[in-house]
């Protein structure tokens, strides 16, 4: 392929799915920087856990509601233009958060910056999902979903671990934000290796175009496969919510800032990325919904083992790293069963109907974990992480059995 064609995005050759990992990295980087780096720095500045949780949980709100503006990405501009707009907004927001003073007085300002950046950041996910839905054959959706989530969770580790490491060593807070923002911008180079996707069918009347898209979504949800996927997204099975609070509770294990940066940053990012790739490989070799449930139960088992282990820095690094692997499994499983369900066209809206629901249990679990921590310290938090996947799996199995007993209630199309 010539350089001229590459820069125009005219390549017709299928690219390695690692490209999608790089494109998805800014989505994870922002969430990691917000959850881990800001969470750590706010805790260090004396902000109570309730205030930290409000910042950590805030990016999930746009991710819950992003299906509302996903049709714009499917039906206006081009996918690559939307990606560049989102990536520039994400980088600018990361830089802005490093300028706002980190104390209780400025929490409202910080919340506003985080919320606006999160709104832009959602479009990183949507555009990459369109690209992967159209470029990857059906039998490789599990593998591709693994690479996609490797970018998500690997980026979380970069934004979190590298963010803490840089913030602890650089003289001015904005420097770490500027470096993380630059890394996010460079990830957009992955677009050079992909052609512009086929656009969704567009009518002269925009509302008619949206109507066609919504009809496709309704047909998907009415199918048994779509309905079961929707239910599975709503349950707290593989949320990985504790990852957002590790830096805030690391003191219970006497973990140093460097150990936290290592555990939730470099090691955690690599561990979760490996988990994504292995999980994606497994999903191409068994039922993808069953794989997701299995991965969520493994995540809960690791939380129990961490709860009964000694509270030492070494145990903190070991168990958070193993937990990161299981979170990678679960995230790959999620992408695999959703990509399987949605098909090729209208991918941003369809995928994000499911993704929006999947963020509800993550958002909910952060506050469940915070509540359990307030009641029973870190042990309570970890037990909550173990109990909820079991309850979620039991609920899904019940729905699955009922859907087989009453096929007329959920019509296959």
UniProtKB/TrEMBL annotation:
Q: Which GO terms describe its cellular component?
A: membrane
Gene3D superfamilies, A to Z: MFS general substrate transporter like domains (1.20.1250.20)
Looking up InterPro entries in the UniProt record yields:
AmpG_permease/AT-1, MFS, MFS_trans_sf
Classification via SUPFAM superfamilies: MFS general substrate transporter
| Bilayer disposition of the protein | Multi-pass membrane protein
- As recorded in UniProt, coiled-coil segments are none
Q: Which residues cross the membrane?
A: 21-43, 49-70, 82-100, 106-126, 147-167, 173-194, 225-247, 259-279, 291-308, 314-339, 351-368, 380-402
Which compartment or compartments is the protein found in? Membrane
Q: What is this protein called?
A: MFS transporter
The scientific name of the source species is Mangrovibacterium diazotrophicum
């Amino acid at each position: 392929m010539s350089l001229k064609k590459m820069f125009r995005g005219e390549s017709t050759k299928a690219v390695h799915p690692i490209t999608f990992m790089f494109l998805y990295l800014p989505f994870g980087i922002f969430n990691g920087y917000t959850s881990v780096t800001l969470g750590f720095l706010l805790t260090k500045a004396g902000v109570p856990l309730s205030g930290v949780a409000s910042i950590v949980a805030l990016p999930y709100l746009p991710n819950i509601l992003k299906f509302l503006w996903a049709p714009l990405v499917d039906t206006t501009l081009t996918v690559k233009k939307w990606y560049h707009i989102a990536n520039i907004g994400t980088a600018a927001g990361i830089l802005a958060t490093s300028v706002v003073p980190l104390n209780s007085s400025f929490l409202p300002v910080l919340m506003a910056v985080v919320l606006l950046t999160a709104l832009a950041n959602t479009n990183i996910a949507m555009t990459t999902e369109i690209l992967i839905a159209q470029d990857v054959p059906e039998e490789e959706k599990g593998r591709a979903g693994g690479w996609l989530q490797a970018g998500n969770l690997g980026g979380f580790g970069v934004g979190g671990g590298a963010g803490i490491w840089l913030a602890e060593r650089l003289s001015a807070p904005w420097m770490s934000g500027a470096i993380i923002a630059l890394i996010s911008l460079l990830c957009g180079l992955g677009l050079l290796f992909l052609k512009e996707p086929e656009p969704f069918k567009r009518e002269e009347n925009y509302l008619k175009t949206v109507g066609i898209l919504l009809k496709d979504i309704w047909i998907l949800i009415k199918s048994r496969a779509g309905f079961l996927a929707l239910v599975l997204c709503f349950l707290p099975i593989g949320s990985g919510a504790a990852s957002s609070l590790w830096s805030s509770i690391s003191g219970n294990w006497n973990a140093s800032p460097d150990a936290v940066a290592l555990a939730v940053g470099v090691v955690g990012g690599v561990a979760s990325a490996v988990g994504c790739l292995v999980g994606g490989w497994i999903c191409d070799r068994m039922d993808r919904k069953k794989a997701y449930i299995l991965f969520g139960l493994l995540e809960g088992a690791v939380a129990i083992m961490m709860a009964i282990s000694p509270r030492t820095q070494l145990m903190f690094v070991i168990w958070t790293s193993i937990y990161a692997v299981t979170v990678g499994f679960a995230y790959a499983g999620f992408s695999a069963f959703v990509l399987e369900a949605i098909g090729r066209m209208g991918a941003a809206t369809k995928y994000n109907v499911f993704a929006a629901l999947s963020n509800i249990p993550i958002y909910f679990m952060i506050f469940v974990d915070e509540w359990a921590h307030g009641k029973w310290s870190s042990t309570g938090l970890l037990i909550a992480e173990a109990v909820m996947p079991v309850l979620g799996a039991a609920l899904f199995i019940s729905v699955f059995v009922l859907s087989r007993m009453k096929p007329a209630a959920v019509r296959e199309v």
